[in-house]
Each structure stands twice: as structure tokens, then as C-alpha cells.
Write a structure and sequence with these properties.
By secondary structure, this protein is α/β, with parallel strands linked by helices. The strands form 5 sheets. It has a 9-stranded mixed β-sheet, with helices on both faces. It is globular and about 90 Å long. It binds xanthosine-5'-monophosphate (XMP). Keywords: ATP-binding, Glutamine amidotransferase, GMP biosynthesis, Ligase, Nucleotide-binding, Purine biosynthesis.
Amino acid sequence: RILIIDFGSQVTQLIARRVREAGVYSEIVPFQSAESAFHDMKPKAVILSGGPASTTEMGSPRAPKAIYDAGIPVLGICYGEQTMCAELGGAVEAGNHREFGRAYIEVKEKSPLFEGVWDIGTRHQVWMSHGDRVTALPEGFRVIATSEGAPFAAIADEARRFYAVQFHPEVVHTPDGARLLRNFVHGIAGCAGDWTMASFREDAKARIRAQVGDGKVICGLSGGVDSAVAAVLIHEAIGDQLTCIFVDHGLMRMNEAEQVVSLFRNHYNIPLVHVDAADTFIDALEGETDPEVKRKTIGRLFIEVFEAEAKKIGGAQFLAQGTLYPDVIESVSFTGGPSVTIKSHHNVGGLPERMNMALVEPLRELFKDEVRALGRELGLPEAFVGRHPFPGPGLAIRCPGGITRAKLDILRQADAIYLDEIRKAGLYDAIWQAFAVLLPVQTVGVMGDGRTYEYVCALRAVTSIDGMTADFYHYDMEFLSRAATRIINEVKGINRVVYDVTSKPPGTIEWE
Ligand code: XMP
């Protein structure tokens, strides 16, 4: 086990992720509670994260002294290097040596940290992000690599097995970083590397049991991967103490609601309340054209319907959510405890406060691809696990200019044909998200010998890593032509198809 002490870097979770990828279990604790966590956990090694503070300021955070006296390896990253130096008798200088972004370091000495990765005298790309820098080393340390802006880019006290780097090995812009971290946890710390998603599953179940005891838990299913994985995991842990509530707002894609219900009821045998609230949602949305009002209406109704169902079930003290790490920016506040900010798009963000229930969030530490891996581990069907992201407000925001049941029907059919063609062409997994949009515009066409006056359907497909930026997918024209022809022939109400070639920015992925 590895203990990661968080000094508030935006990328601390990536350290944990790299350690997991090396097959080693790790836990992140904020620096304020590091001392007790260290004594409880008895880790085989400690990693100190980066952070926004400056060791030259009064009251800036430090790692507990005990970690340096325990005879275990310690790795400091960025601020972690600086605090390590400040604590062990070196010196750190503030400002004026800022290095942000790509930098090159030169390896000066052989070290187990570089074993099999970097040789003496070679230069390598790393990612830097620091204002302060170390100017004098504590006793016992030697410089093992330098960069132009950081003469102490990597340092080591091999006897005590203390290592520190000014750059960020956890980010992908340090191409060899993952291998350096692997060297630290395997070679230096001696961890076996046999931790897997199967171990995560067992650990997570134990944590859920410990948190929940014999209490009752309710979990909202959205039809997406995250809430499904959370629900299946929790059900494995506590069985029928869990009840799932699926608020069906009537804005799902073709057959999707049925699939969710059948998967949970028939395949997993998990208690599920299926609330068919389509009329409530669609009646409230009818005639509404403002996208933000649509979102707010859907969010508010969702909470109301969910709350009413939860009351009927009665007696639940816990609310389970499939929150992932990217949904949570956990920043360490230097005055109080860690504070949590939820990113936007969290449609049901108000639910926990409103219902005054404790949260069960077993996926909080995971990234999307790790949740998918866990989903596979739990036996969720591949088609479910690999699904494109789908927005909480569903088709309502893919039907600009006011929704009606008839328009939703048309959109659902066009979308199903489009996705079918994408799957047939083997393109589904190469695309981050693909969907049809029904425009509130009718145009003239000719079919057979008759004039038509029907809706325009826009097709969208993007590639993306995280949904923050995106490029439109570059289909070949044959594919587009095939999809368009099928949609126009098979869907009554559409006589024209266009393809959206906007990237994000300046566009967004959804049209509303
Ligand atoms: P945009 O359109 O902002 O979308 O580029 C980025 C990602 O977020 C999804 N999205 C939403 N998800 N509620 C959600 O749960 C929303 O209101 C919402 N709006 C957009 C979108 O599908 C894409 O994956």
C-alpha cells in the first residue's frame, strides 16, 4: 500500500491512477489528516503531491515528520520536493524561476528511479509547473537530473530511499513518467504489483459495508454507465438493502428505458422502481424553447419525482451516486478541511442536500475508463459498458425550439438509424459521442412525384478525450450518404439531413 499525501494539486488523482496502473493499491489523504492516516495505514511508501502553496510562506503545509523517520521510501513531486527539502534541512527560493509546460531534463546519475528507463547523459521531455525551486539540498541528497530552470530537477538520498522531482511524472506530457512511478512503487518500495480491478471490487464492497452497516440505500439510475456500475457494485456488497429508482423522463433514446429495466430486474435481480414520468416531464416542457429553462425544469422535476418515490420506499438513510473523479474537483483548503466543488452539468446536484442523506459514492476515485473496466469486471454487457455519454436532460436538448411527443418520436427513430449505421460500419468505439438533432426548421423536398415539407435532421459525431474539447468526426462521404438516405427513407417527418462540422470550441458538443 502506498499513501499519497495531497497538498492540493489539480492532478493528485493522476498519481493514484498511475500507481493503480502499476498494480499497487494507494490511498490519497489531504495533508491535514496525513499524520493519523499514516499511523493507521502503515504504508510501504509515501508520495507527496504537488500543490499551490509556497514553502517560503509562513504556515505553508508540511508532511508529517513521522514519514521521514519510518525507514520507508518517500517520493516528493513538485511542491512535495520543496516541502521535503524544507523539512530535511535544504533551502527553497520563491518566485522568479517559473517553469511552466514542457521542459527537458538531463540525467546526471544512475538511480533506481531511472532504472531501465533513463540512462546517464540522456535528455528527456518532462512537464514542469512551478514558481519556487530548491536551491540547496538537505544532507545526504545528490542531484540525479537537472533542467535549465531547475538545477535540482530530480534528487535522491539513495541510503534513506528519499526521492524528489520538480517535474510531474504523473501527467501524460512526461512521456516516461508512468515508468518512473512504476520504478518507485515496484523496485524501490517493493510492492508486488498484483492489485487489480478485482481487488478494487472487493475493497470497495468492504468499504460500502463498513459505511452502510445494515442501513437502507437508494440509488438513482440514469441509464448511463456510472450509475449502473455503482448500483451493481453496491448490490453485490449489501444485497437488497439497496433499492434503485429509475426516473424515466421519456427523453431516452430508442428502447433504452426497457434495456435498463430488463438488465436490472432480469439479469441482476436488483430491486428496481421504474417510474414512468414521461407525461410529467413532457407536459412541463411543451412549448419551452430556452435551453437553460429546459435543463432547470428537468432537474427540478427529477428531484421532485425521485424524492416522492424515495418517500414511498421509506427509511433509507443513504443516497448512492455514480460520481466519478472528473465530476469532483477536490481542492485542499489551507484553512479548513478539503472542500468539494461539483462541476456543472450535474443535473441532480441539489438532491443530496435537499434529501439530507449521507452519500455513498464508490466510484469517486475512478476515471471513466476505469469505471468501464470495473463494469466489465462486474459482468455488465459490453454494449452497456462501452456506451457513449448521454446528457441527463436527454433528447430534450437535441430538439431545439420546443419539444412535442411527435418530434421526440421522429428524433428517436432518426437517432436509432444513425447509431445503427455507425455500429455496422464499426465506428462506434472510435467516436466519443454521436447523435441526431431534430431542427425546428422545415424545408421543401420532392419524394416520388410529390412535394414534401418536413423537418431537417442534423447529425453530430465528435472525437474527444474528456468532453472538454472536441473535433467533429471525419466520416467518409459514403457513410454519410448511406445514413442520410436511410433516415430520409425510413423516418416519416424528415426530408433533409445535414452534418455538423463544428469543433469544440467554438461549438459545444450538444446543440443546446
Ligand atoms: P457540451 O455540449 O457542453 O457537452 O460540449 C459536453 C458533454 O457534456 C454532456 N452534457 C450534459 N450532460 N447534463 C449532462 O448530464 C447536461 O445538461 C449536459 N449538457 C451537455 C454532453 O453530452 C457532452 O458529453
